Each structure stands twice: as C-alpha cells, then as structure tokens.
Amino acid sequence: MTDPMILSGTADIDSLRQSLIAGSLQVQQQIIPQLSNLGNEGLDVLMEFLQQRCEHPATWIDGKAYQVLYNSDAPQVKEFLLKCFPEGIVPLKSECGIDYNPLQQLLAVQDFQAADLVSIQKMCELAGPMAVQRKWLYFTEVGNAPIIDLQTINNLWLVHSEGKFGFSVQREIWLSLGKNWESLWPKIGWKSGNNWTRYPNQFTWDLSAPKGHLPLSNQLRGVRVMAALLSHPAWSKSNKI
C-alpha cells in the first residue's frame, strides 16, 4: 500500500509546478522560495521551468529561479547550469567584446554593492582606456556607448533584482515625473530633503531599496551623465534586443 504522505508530497510538488508555470507573477514569486526548500524535487521543478523558458528572453522570475539554482551545491544543478546556462540566465551580448560574466555572477548572489562598482567599471571599459584610468565617465562618453552593451548591463540588473533596479527603471520613473530631476532624486533614494545620500553607507544594497535605487551609474558626477544615460537610444522601443 502506498504511503499517503508520499502521495501528498507528490501532489504538493505537482501543484507547485502547475502554479509556477501558469500562475501570476505574484504567485510565481511566492512559489520559487517554497520549491527551494523542498530539496532535490523542488530543484528539479525549477530546472524544468528554466529549461522550458530558455528560448525566451529572461524575465526577473527566471532570474529568481536561476538564483536559487546558482546558489545550490547539488551536483545535478551544477551540471544543469553548466550545460544549459554556462554564462548565466541573461545573454552577455557586447559590441566591444566586454566580458559581463563577473557582473552576472555578483548579481546572481545579490551582491549589489560590488555589482554597482563592476557596472561602472564596465561602462568605463566601453568608453576606452582614458575612462578606465580615471574611473569615471564624461557625459559625452555615455552617449557614445553601444546600445547592445547598455542593454546587457540593464537586463542583468532587471533580471536579478525582481525588476526593481536598472537604467530603464530609472528612466521610467524620470519620465513619469516629467523629467524633473529634483523629484527623481528623493523618489529613488538618492536625496533626502536637501541632503544627498552619502556613498556607500547611506545607500541600500538590497531589495528593500526604493525602486530605481540602483545602479548608481556615476551618481556623484552630476546630472549631465545621468541625463545622457536616461536619454540614450538604448531605451527606444525600436532598439529592444
């Protein structure tokens, strides 16, 4: 006779699998951590989920499932990721041969402070040796950054932050405020009253931060760099990758 507890466990897994595939974003968001606590069976469902979706652009739900797997020590999971996602969940496209793998690895473990520094480094690499040497950007250099590279950096932040962080998120908020900078800074947590948020300790380096809080993208260099970034053609609908 079959143990009813085993049947119940199977039913629970099947129910969670169906909800993960067909549920709303909110439901999916709740189910992923539940599956992560169910041992190998839960991990199997997450691997199956990502494999079914690998032909489509990664969303932040895919990012959450990937993060659980990436942080697992299970041998079958490591083998699966190596085979199906050797570079991570987000395709690391670059017009200039820039390696975005270090950024993806930091974001996958939610080390947002280190990822922010790497993002600035990568943008300096896009601008050339002089920017790499000085470790910050002129606004004219931002405007010349390749569309594909900026979209890659942005997608990495979006996918690994539940859709909360990224240049496109900051742009969306900026546009919703009528491009008013003085309204934007407090909205994304970069200013409180008359006081600028001090780097690094006053910034929030986790998902409790306000939407659009990260990446900082040369925050200390003034509005012209930010204006060039948020006005870049990378965010035009006709240029989506």
Give short descriptive properties of this protein.
disordered N terminus, mainly alpha, 241 residues
In short:
The protein has 241 residues and is an all-alpha fold. The protein has helices at 4-22, 25-36, 39-53, 60-70, 75-84, 101-108, 112-127, 129-134, 139-143, 147-159, 167-176, 181-187, 223-230; strands at 191-192, 195-196.
What this model shows, in words?
- There is one protein chain.
- The chain is an all-alpha fold and 241 residues long.
- It has 13 helices and two strands; from the N terminus they run H-H-H-H-H-H-H-H-H-H-H-H-E-E-H.
- The chain has helices at residues 4-22, 25-36, 39-53, 60-70, 75-84, 101-108, 112-127, 129-134, 139-143, 147-159, 167-176, 181-187, 223-230, and strands at residues 191-192, 195-196.
- Strand 1 and strand 2 form a beta hairpin.
- Residues 1-9 have low confidence and may be disordered.
Biggest beta sheet attributes? 2 strands, antiparallel
Nearest-angstrom radius of gyration? 20 Å
**Order of secondary-structure elements:** HHHHHHHHHHHHEEH
Q: Which structural class is indicated by helix and strand composition?
A: mainly alpha
Q: Rough shape?
A: globular
Strand content: under 5%
| DSSP, total strands | 2
Q: For the record, give the distance between the C-alpha atoms at the N and C termini, rounded to a whole number.
A: 54 Å
Main β-sheet, spatial strand arrangement? 1-2
Enumerate how many helices there are, as a single number.
13
**Poorly predicted residue ranges:** 1-9
- What is the arithmetic mean of pLDDT? 91
- Oligomeric grouping of the chains: single chain
